[in-house]
Specification:
The structure holds 2 protein chains of 2 kinds. Chain A is an alpha+beta fold. Chain A is built from 30 helices and 15 strands. Chain B has a single domain (39-195, 264-450), classed as Alkaline Phosphatase, subunit A. Classes of the chains: A alpha+beta, B alpha/beta.
């Protein structure tokens, strides 16, 4: 951060004008400098207490401050007492290290932080000169506001000044714009030291202003002028379209066209069931001419058994259903219970209550595996908050959360709610004696009479408190989980409904309204707040009915949009103006391959024929150093999560070089060559090559081949005349010639294998679009 | 969260091959690249199990017999630097080596200490149950691939021939939160096997290069039908991987680098016909071909109870005795491989630009235990560096009279990490961003005193 940019006269003029509007004057140095209010501000403004500097857990260069100024007493001690008090020289203030270092007058790893004569310098110096008084009780900060709270800037407007106002416990208010610090949530905007936000690119950015221990978000939206813009005024299917389109219109972005039927049918099958439509299903849908065919397809899909498989997989990911801790039997019973809950349409609030209230045998009462997987009070607290309240608490374990309202007190009092879950380990036939994570055998999950969480800072037992809500009364001293379950899942708990609604939305649209989906906080606002509210209402009013919410989303025009951009929405990737393209997740891709080839793949410990999307766990425990089964190897390479984090983020939809290697030379070749697969059957059939290509294209891509495709593949099937155009091709040809490699026997089957390989490796096949 | 706009992404994606992706752009933004790269490559020989400092490179011949090694300390090519008598070849090459005798940390268990050693970051707890997850730091090689990826067609980072574990898999062997695309090229095939080859670099029996090309033609025909490649940077990125994979399958450079059988027998014998010996030879070949970071894991288990297998974990458990094992297995193997590697790099003019690191996850207790062996000791141990811009014949830091605690210049693994990155021309103050959007430094203090 360049030093000394804060007192440009133009800025002061701007600020004065802005502040006049709210009837305030901007901060000026008062008679006495307060440590709590003024010095602490300087430590933040100059960046001294940032995580990468002295706010680091182990300090920097032997000097330590509380992270972002959470603890004034601590900071006062370090400034005045540590290092033999050399940091402060009351007799010769200018010799104080606390001034020499940030001014850059003595070597400072962090460089110069402010200039001589700057506001920061004057505050620190005045404080030392006046005796370096410690933090005393004085009016505390009660609220922080930013003006404006949000801004929409239409080109050519390209910047906006944020004004920050602090309100104190004695009722006083003052402007702290030049004292606050600013951060911006993405690379679309820049923010100056003094709160001026300017455009780098069009779109939404959130600016966070902090002052002392408070922070406030400002949403800034930069809209391009697009002089000739005409709103396309697409029709709306339901409330989802209303909210999404309203914002798009404001942003001067037109949504893409409605997707074609063949794209929609493929997308709907993959998103709702995790499998491809068969050639017949796809053809029938595309040939159907009735206007309500999409509605009817959605209804029909939701009644199919694969719907339950699909959602059981999603829940198994985040509920940490994995073999090492739950053991293979535990994984199977837990998965079966989740799957049955989804198949039965169990209301999601009840589903969660059953998890939270689970007691007894991990084999007999499957939801107890939620507690079996989460083995300490802090982990249980973190997981429960993350999954059902969309809150990431982890930061607050060691210090107050730097971007959220959660304090360390909140963290440990919430963990205390989970303190009395206990285990009776009936047996543990651990396979790897060295592996202390492994459990193999039945466990009884019970509520014990003892068990408490202690605050690591003072060793005292912490009283249980619901997150961001009330303390549990003495009546709940023993059974803390019943009041938790009731409170957590009640319709009044908006965070519960919103985080679930966002979870469902994410799995259908590929991007959360809050993103990441488990990171709800004021400083990470939803892209469409009203839509999220309405979806939460939809969930609550339907009695927490998953199918109802899924159907509502899939019926919207927004869900059914094409991925092909128009000239206004090319850059949009978070306002749902077009379908999001992403690589199919591991299980869907593998199942799609095996479905197209009609050649099932094997997984360690499961009968052949089970789909990847139906696997209960990660991988059955195998003997050390034994190679994985082909199916398991594929899933690992394509990013199936390890299920250790209770976080959707663990699943990777990245593309990698090893994936390309696997699709080129890997086990797929064995599937292609099987004697009883679809290729072999088609090759042996009396059908013409054109008929076969047509069938394969419908099977793999849910559409008929284009003329170019049909011509090209038929030419290839009938005669081979490879054209060596690119360097890559020439290199291959040279190499082939060099090694005297001859093409394999030119029979119809091997050519069809090549066509099938090409289909399975086309981007249209590998990507959801 | 730092996000790039789509337009950016498209431009980058459009720039084609792999080198020009997000990391480069981010790096450009950070303005790194001003540090001179002294080491083009690193060979990290990780000594799993924890070799004893006091029986190798930090002998204390004057310590009481409850501490002193039963092995003799002998003079080396560097005056004043003594080495164990069972490393006679190494004594002749100490003038090319820089020892750090004041390595120190507090992790007593293999898994957390191992993670610390191969990632340079202190684990959250000293707990054997530490599990590999996206919350923990990436391997050195993955950080290099993120900040300074290879653009020469070779993988940036290769790791082999074991996955190390002590019960659970030790974290820090993969890219973690940097993303799978930064994983090292990892293989478990044995370079000492007569039919050694990488499955990735070989095509199945019925798939000739020619046939693969014909498949690729049809694939490209189908890809032209949907406009996905026009508007999805991800789809384009994946197609780039196909192109690169096919080039690797057909390019001589990569294939030849892994073709250890083309080495003359004499050279293979010099390293010893063991998995570890041939792994060291392969490391030299890979560096020669332009790989930036090679990690060789000494063993697949902590070992220490048998001659002929496992690592350095010689507690004397099960009525075994450390001093009946190490001088017959670990030490002779070290004395055959390390000097050979240094010589060979030197002969080929590669030593100046290749940093060799030899170290374990901790040292061993100065006090000899009741089994006449030694237990874990992270408080003070030795790391060995050679080539790649470090001083030869140098000792940095020192331990006390019993090699129990650092006497001067204590060095944490974080500092060693910073030094490795610095030597590779990567700014150790560079930040990587984790899943919680924290900007985390990649290293601690750079040890400028070890740099030549």
């Amino acid at each position: 951060m360049p030093a000394g940019r804060h007192c440009q006269p133009t800025l002061f003029r701007l600020l004065s004008i802005a502040l006049l509007g709210v009837g305030l004057s901007e901060f000026s140095i008062a008679d006495t400098v307060s440590f709590r209010r003024d010095v602490m501000t300087v430590l933040s403004k100059a960046g001294c207490n940032a995580g990468a500097c002295h706010g680091n857990g182990s300090g920097k260069g032997g000097f330590k401050l509380s992270l972002r100024g959470q603890n004034p007493e601590f900071d006062y001690h370090w400034l005045t007492r540590e290092a033999d008090g050399r940091r402060i020289d009351r007799l010769h203030p200018d010799r104080s290290l606390a001034l020499l270092k940030p001014l850059g007058k003595v070597p400072h790893q962090g460089g110069a932080r402010f200039r001589e004569g700057s506001l920061e310098h004057r505050i620190l110096r005045d404080w030392i000169t006046s005796g370096a008084a410690g933090p005393i009780s004085e009016p505390t900060l009660t609220s922080l506001e930013a003006v404006p709270t949000s801004a929409l800037l239409l080109e050519p407007e390209e910047s906006v000044q944020v004004v920050v106002i602090a309100r104190f416990s004695d009722g006083s208010r003052r402007g702290v714009t030049s004292l606050a610090t600013y951060e911006v949530s993405n690379l679309l905007a820049d923010v100056s030291r003094d709160g001026r936000v300017s455009r780098r690119n069009f779109g939404d950015a959130t600016v966070i202003a902090r002052y002392l221990d408070r922070q406030v978000p400002v949403r800034v939206t930069f809209v391009p002028a697009r002089p000739g813009f005409v709103w396309s005024d697409p029709s709306e299917n339901n409330f989802i379209d209303r909210f999404v389109f309203a914002k798009l219109q404001q942003l001067r972005v037109n949504p893409s066209e409605l997707s074609d039927d063949h794209v929609f049918v493929r997308r709907a099958f993959l998103d709702a069931l995790g499998v491809l439509p068969t050639a017949t299903e796809a053809r029938e849908f595309c040939e159907d001419t009735s206007p309500d065919k999409r509605e009817r397809l959605i209804e029909a899909l939701l009644q199919r058994p694969e719907f339950a498989d699909h959602w059981a997989l999603k829940w198994s990911d985040v509920l940490r259903n994995e073999e090492k801790v739950l053991d293979p039997k535990g994984v199977e019973v837990f998965h079966a219970w989740i799957r049955q809950s989804m198949a039965d349409g169990k209301p999601l609030d009840r589903f969660v209550r059953e998890l939270i209230r689970a007691e007894g045998s991990s084999y007999e009462n499957p939801p107890t595996n939620y507690w079996r997987a989460n083995r300490s009070p802090t982990v249980r607290g973190e997981t429960t908050a993350r999954l059902f309240l969309g809150a990431r608490l982890q930061c607050a374990k060691c210090h107050n959360h730097p971007f959220d309202r959660w304090t360390q007190d909140d963290y440990y009092s919430w963990a205390a709610v989970f303190a009395r879950v206990d285990y009776e380990i009936v047996e543990n036939k651990r396979k790897d004696k060295l592996d202390k994570n492994e459990f193999n055998g039945e466990q009884i999950i019970q509520i014990s009479d003892g068990g408490a969480v202690r605050d690591p800072r003072n060793g005292e037992v912490v009283w249980p408190k619901l997150l961001g809500d009330r303390q549990l009364g003495p009546g709940s001293y023993h059974d803390r989980l019943t009041p938790l379950a009731v409170w957590l899942t009640s319709a009044e708990n908006r965070l519960f409904a919103k985080s679930l609604a966002n979870f469902i939305w994410y799995h259908l649209l590929g991007h959360g309204i809050v993103e990441p989906i488990d990171d709800f906080r004021a400083t990470n606002p939803p892209s469409h707040p009203e839509l999220l509210d309405a979806l939460a209402d939809c969930l609550v009013e339907s009695g927490f009915d998953l199918r109802h919410v899924v159907a509502t989303i899939m019926r919207s025009r927004v869900y059914q949009l094409s991925a092909i951009p128009n000239e206004t929405n090319e850059d949009d990737d978070r306002n749902f103006s077009r379908a999001i393209v992403h690589r199919l997740p591991a299980e869907k891709l593998l199942d799609a391959q095996t479905q197209v080839l009609d050649a099932p793949v094997s997984f360690n410990g499961y009968p052949r024929g089970l789909r990847a999307g139906q696997l209960p766990g990660i991988e059955k425990v195998r003997i050390r150093d034994e190679p994985p089964a082909p199916g398991d190897r594929f899933l690992r390479t394509f990013g199936k999560p390890e299920r250790l984090l209770a976080c959707e983020c663990e699943r990777s939809n990245e593309t990698t070089l090893s994936q390309a290697f696997m699709l080129i030379g890997g086990d797929v070749n064995e599937l292609l060559e099987r004697a009883d697969n679809r290729i072999a059957r088609l090759a042996a059939s009396p059908n013409t090559n054109a008929e076969i290509v047509n069938e394969l294209c419908w099977t793999a891509l849910s559409r008929a081949p284009t003329t170019e495709e049909l011509d090209g593949t038929l030419r290839y099937l009938d005669e081979t005349s490879p054209m060596f155009e690119t360097k890559e091709q020439q290199a291959l040809a040279r190499l082939a010639a060099q090694f005297n490699l001859l093409p394999p026997p030119d029979d119809r089957r091997s050519r069809l294998q090549d066509v099938a390989w090409a289909l399975l490796n086309s981007k249209e096949f590998i990507f959801r679009h | 969260m730092n996000r790039l706009t789509r337009r950016h992404a498209i431009k980058i994606g459009g720039a084609g091959m792999l080198g020009l992706t997000l990391p480069k752009l981010l790096r450009a933004e950070r303005g790194a690249g001003s540090i001179k790269a002294r080491a083009k490559s690193v060979i990290f020989l990780f000594q799993w199990g924890g070799p004893s400092q006091i029986d190798t490179f930090d002998m204390k011949p004057n310590a009481p017999n409850t501490v002193r090694s039963p092995y003799q300390a002998i003079d080396s090519s560097v005056p004043g630097v003594q080495v164990c008598e069972h490393l006679p070849e190494m004594t002749k090459r100490m003038d090319r080596v820089c020892l750090i005798r004041s390595m120190t940390h507090r992790m007593n268990n293999h898994a957390p200490a191992g993670y610390y050693a191969i990632s340079g970051h202190e684990p959250p707890a000293d707990d054997q149950r530490l599990r590999d997850s996206l919350d923990l730091y990436p391997a050195y090689g993955s950080v290099v691939d993120h900040l300074a990826p290879n653009t020469n067609g070779m993988p940036t980072s290769v790791a082999y021939p074991h996955v190390i574990r002590d019960g659970s898999i030790v974290p820090g062997q993969h890219a973690s939160f940097l993303g799978k695309r930064h994983d090292p090229l990892f293989f478990l095939e044995d370079p000492n096997a007569s039919d050694f080859k990488l499955p990735e670099l070989s095509l199945p029996r019925n798939l000739s290069v020619d046939r693969l090309q014909r498949r690729r033609d049809v694939q490209q025909l189908i890809d032209r039908q949907a406009r996905l490649l026009d508007f999805s940077a991800d789809a384009r990125g994946f197609d780039d991987y196909y192109q690169r994979a096919i080039l690797m399958l057909t390019s001589d450079r990569v294939r030849k680098a892994f073709d250890i059988s083309s080495e003359p027998d004499a050279v293979r014998e010099r390293y010893g016909r063991t998995t570890y010996g041939q792994s060291c030879l392969l490391a030299r070949r890979l560096v020669e071909a332009g790989v930036k970071f090679v990690t060789v894991y000494y063993s697949n288990s902590i070992g220490g109870r048998k001659i002929g297998e496992g690592g350095w974990d010689t507690h004397g458990f099960d009525n075994t005795r450390m001093y009946k094992i190490v001088d017959k297995y670990q030490l002779p193997m070290t004395d055959q491989t390390l000097p050979t590697l240094l010589d060979e790099l030197d002969e080929r003019g590669l030593l100046d630009e290749t940093l060799v690191v030899w170290m374990g996850e901790f040292g061993r207790t100065p006090k000899i235990n009741k089994n006449e062996s030694r237990d874990h000791w992270p408080q003070c141990y030795t790391a060995l560096l050679a080539g790649g811009g470090v001083k030869g014949g140098h000792v940095y830091g020192s331990s006390d009279s019993q090699a129990m605690y650092p006497d001067e210049h204590p060095v944490k693994p974080d500092d060693l990490a910073a030094t490795l990155f610095y030597l590779m021309g990567i700014d150790p103050a560079a930040k990587i961003i984790d899943r919680h959007d924290r900007r985390l430094p990649i290293g601690g203090r750079t040890l400028y005193d070890v740099i030549a």
